[in-house]
Amino acid sequence: xxxxxxxxxxxxxxxxxxxxxxxxxxxxxxxxxxxxxxxxxxxxxxxxxxxxxxxxxxxxxxxxxxxxxxxxxxxxxxxxxxxxxxxxxxxxxxxxxxxxxxxxxxxxxxxxxxxxxxxxxxxxxxxxxxxxxxxxxxxxxxxxxxxxxxxxxxxxxxxxxxxxxxxxxxxxxxxxxxxxxxxxxxxxxxxxxxxxxxxxxxxxxxxxxxxxxxxxxxxxxxxxxxxxxxxxxxxxxxxxxxxxxxxxxxxxxxxxxxxxxxxxxxxxxxxxxxxxxxxxxxxxxxxxxx
Length: 290
Ligand code: SF4
Prior knowledge:
The protein has helices at about 5-15, 30-40, 45-60, 60-65, 70-75, 85-100, 110, 120-130, 140-150, 160-170, 175-190, 210-215, 235-245, 255, 265-275; strands at about 280, 285-290. By secondary structure, the chain is an all-alpha fold. Among the domains are: about 20-130, Endonuclease III, domain 1 (Orthogonal Bundle); about 235-290, Orthogonal Bundle (Arc Repressor Mutant, subunit A). Strands 1-2 form a two-stranded antiparallel ribbon. The longest helix is centred in the middle third of the chain and has 17 residues, at about 175-190. It is globular. It starts with 6 loop residues before the first helix and ends with a strand. About 35% of the residues are buried. The mean pLDDT is about 95. The structure holds iron/sulfur cluster (SF4). Iron/sulfur cluster binds near residues 144, 147, 148, 193 and 205. Iron/sulfur cluster binds near residues 200, 205 and 211.
């Protein structure tokens, strides 16, 4: 399908309301788009912006990042969270330098073959960096389509083949318009049709929304993953990694012991950081970035 009733109102709304972001627009490089897609996977735009800017100043190309050790990427990642993304981005930069002449590849298949690049990220880079025609199914896009078309508050946990086919079918025919449609859906989900408090009075497709028309039936699917943070292994790993990242040299065990009281959890998390390659143990038994 190349025309759908949702297209025009969402494209017009995006035209009027899109945020200006450094990885959008004609002057953004494919590398800038790629870095943003890694950073935005689990981190809000406001926290990504300053880190993305410093990253692009320091490493304006994938080849520039590839010349540095992976630990520098982890250090520059700072407090964005889920720091394995920094290692994957570094590994991708090395592969781009070695196999693609330093240029971010433009086909979905070449992107998907890069280390740590999954289906969503490959599609997003192909679409937003190279204007390829692909469905881009992030959580915002999926939620807007679940509400407008399926009449449910949230989509299922995993993307089904039927959902993927429908999203591809929904794409405007022209690749450039299809890319704008995808980013428009994402922006609508981020700014208006939010997870917890959708602002339906400001929504350009409120008259077409099946969930709204049905009286907002309550979600009755499986329990959704919560955002518990205090006391979790993720919080513990974050504290330990921050000590290593912000130190000038290798860190002794006692310095790590001081930031997390539960010895068992601390040991488990430190071991997992070493196993993930985010931290290395030096010959002297201290801890450092790789
Ligand atoms: Fe989302 Fe409300 Fe718009 Fe439906 S009407 S798409 S629930 S913002």
